[in-house]
Recover the amino acids of this structure.
């Protein structure tokens, strides 16, 4: 039997929780005990009473919640104070910001067994554990709604006795999970949508959603072996900038989603491009936490430059905390099933499993991903 602890999140702007009453029931049905910190699910509309009804016990603070816990499940990484309160060999699974978190080696020194949920391999077998996809899906949807909060016109065409309102022109930059959901949402709301992606393979998906694909003619492959966009040549970037400038100038709403793991977000919209945009246009920069696809974006701020509203919310999924938590918690449940015995709850960390090996950061006092530190910029 494992004792599983669900602490409250303390990071700024974080409203999600790593378990829900539904997943708590399943952990308990597999022979585990679950302890939830008081108020942990409050911002996501999961009450302490609901967790208790699911079989969890409620603890008053982080220390009481994690005392003698075998497993700690979180959304955001452990901070330094939290880390010091955990006993050696505690298993901790969370998002871990592996390319920027300065505490990764300290987790190992503390003797913790840590897993970075964002490093789970993006394979067919791991789809049900893919937190990046589940949260990006929510982020892409909400990004369109954020744009609408600041856009002072209708999204769809509207024909009235007083005249016809033309539909908004939306440009989505990056056709990964977030971008595709943004395209689908904008289309459902009646916008004319264009989408740009460096990966030619994204064209079919974009067009299947009713959007027009904007592409740069190229010979090189823009997708790495893991399915992510990779850094492109200077020649390509120049052609890309010229094409993007033209389409940005004609857009009413631009949503940028372009990220490269382990590197600053690529600059797609320059200050000069912003100056050419329509008065009242809106940019939602979903890459703002990694520096932004527009250098004018400010993290967790909304401001106006040259008549253009720049929206820089760094944790968009947390704005839809209930569903974001439900999906994250289910991803976590499926991941933990790889190492928890279904009958007894006993923990077995099998490093021959490619999913476990891909996500593990530290074990037995050893930091296992030295290449992460070497690759930091």
């Amino acid at each position: 039997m494992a004792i599983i602890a669900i602490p409250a999140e303390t990071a700024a702007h974080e409203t999600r929780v790593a378990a829900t009453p539904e997943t708590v029931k399943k952990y308990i049905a597999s022979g585990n005990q679950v302890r939830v910190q008081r108020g942990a699910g409050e911002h996501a509309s999961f009450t302490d009473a609901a967790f208790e009804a699911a079989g969890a016990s409620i603890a008053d603070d982080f220390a009481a919640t994690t005392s003698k816990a075998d497993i700690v499940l979180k959304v955001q990484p452990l901070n330094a104070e939290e880390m010091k309160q955990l006993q050696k060999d505690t298993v901790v699974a969370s998002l871990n910001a592996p390319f920027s978190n300065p505490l990764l080696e300290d987790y190992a020194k503390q003797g913790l067994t840590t897993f970075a949920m964002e490093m789970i391999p993006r394979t067919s077998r791991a789809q049900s554990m893919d937190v990046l996809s589940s949260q990006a899906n929510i982020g892409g949807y909400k990004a369109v709604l954020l744009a609408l909060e600041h856009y002072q016109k209708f999204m769809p065409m509207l024909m009235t006795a007083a005249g016809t309102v033309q539909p908004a022109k939306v440009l989505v930059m990056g056709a990964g999970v977030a971008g595709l959901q943004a395209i689908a949402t904008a289309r459902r709301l009646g916008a004319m949508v264009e989408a740009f992606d460096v990966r030619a393979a994204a064209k079919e998906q974009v067009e299947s959603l009713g959007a027009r694909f904007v592409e740069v003619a190229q010979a090189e492959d823009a997708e790495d072996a893991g399915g992510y966009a990779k850094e492109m040549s200077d020649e390509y970037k120049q052609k890309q900038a010229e094409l993007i400038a033209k389409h940005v100038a004609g857009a009413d709403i631009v949503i940028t989603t372009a990220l490269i793991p382990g590197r600053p977000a690529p600059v797609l919209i320059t200050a000069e491009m912003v100056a050419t945009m329509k008065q009242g246009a809106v940019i939602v920069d979903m890459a703002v936490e990694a520096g932004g696809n527009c250098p004018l974006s400010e993290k967790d701020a909304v401001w106006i430059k040259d008549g253009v509203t720049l929206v820089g919310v760094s944790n968009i999924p947390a704005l839809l905390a209930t569903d974001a938590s439900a999906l994250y918690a289910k991803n976590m449940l499926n991941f933990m099933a790889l190492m928890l015995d279904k009958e007894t709850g006993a923990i077995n960390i099998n490093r021959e499993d490619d999913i476990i090996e891909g996500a593990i950061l530290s074990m037995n006092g050893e930091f296992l991903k030295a290449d992460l530190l070497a690759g930091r910029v």
